[in-house]
Model the fold of this input.
Amino acid sequence: MHTTTFKFEEGSPYVGSHRPIGLEIHERLMWQVRRLHREDMQKAGWELIIYTPIPAYLDKPATIEVYWDYDNPDEPCSD
Done:
């Protein structure tokens, strides 16, 4: 599991504008996936799994700590 912290400060286009932040967070995490899991991206069934609930909109500046993983939920765990 990985953790990424997102800071949305005053002046961000996502603060107070009713602009959804879910897609932005998903896109940023996919860049992390491409960097960290390059080999797994070629395998069928692998997907980004986000464990942290993401708010739809931000009324004020916020720091969101997102727990996520890139895994194949159909494969048995090898732990």
Q: What stands out?
A: DSSP finds one helix and three strands in the chain. The chain has a mean pLDDT of 87. Residues 2-71 form one domain. The longest helix spans residues 22-36.
